[in-house]
Request: fold
Amino acid sequence: NAGVTQTPKFRVLKTGQSMTLLCAQDMNHEYMYWYRQDPGMGLRLIHYSVGEGTTAKGEVPDGYNVSRLKKQNFLLGLESAAPSQTSVYFCASSYQGWGENTEAFFGQGTRLTVV
Amino acid sequence: QQQVKQSPQSLIVQKGGISIINCAYENTAFDYFPWYQQFPGKGPALLIAIRPDVSEKKEGRFTISFNKSAKQFSLHIMDSQPGDSATYFCAASMTGETSGSRLTFGEGTQLTVNP
Reply:
C-alpha cells in the first residue's frame, strides 16, 4: 500500500515549456486534490476532483489544467510554464468529502523550478 | 486574502516545554479544523483534527483548543521533544459530498525544539 505517489519528484523547466505531473493513489479514494506550497503562504488549492471524470477549480487555478480519467489518477498540466509557477506541488486524496473519513493523505511532493 | 491566519511564523522551545500555535479563521461555514505536521522533504501528514461542536480534543501530547465565538483555534504540544521539530499548518474546510474536503491552510509555523 503505497498511499499517494507523485511523479516526478523534481523537475526544471524552461519558460514556455509544458509538462504533466502525475498523482496516483491506491486507497480507492473518491476525492483528489492538487495544492501548491510557497514560502510564507501555506498550501493553496489549485484544482480538485470529487470523482472519476470530474474536475473543479480551486483557489489558484490559472495556468493549470487537470484530468481524472481513472479513479486512481489525477494529472496536473502546465501548458506554458512561467517562473511564477516555481513551487512545490502536492497531491492529496480523501475517502470522503464529509463525515468521519475526511482526512486528506498527501504525496511526497514535486519540486518544480521554472527558469 | 488569507482566510486562515496562523501565528507565530516561527517558534523555538526547550525540550519538555509547551509549544502553542494559534490560528484564526473568517468563514463561519468551516466545519472541520485539522492540524498538519510536515517534515523537510515530506508531504504534510494529519496530526489531529476537531469539529466545531467540541471545544477541546486531546491525543497524547497534542491538544486542540477551539473557540467558536472568537473564530480561533490553537494547537498545544505538551512536553515538546526534538522530534517534534517540524512545520505545522492549521487548516479549515467546508466538508461536503460535492465539495470534498478542500482545505484552506494557514501560513505555517516552523517549530524548533532544542535539546
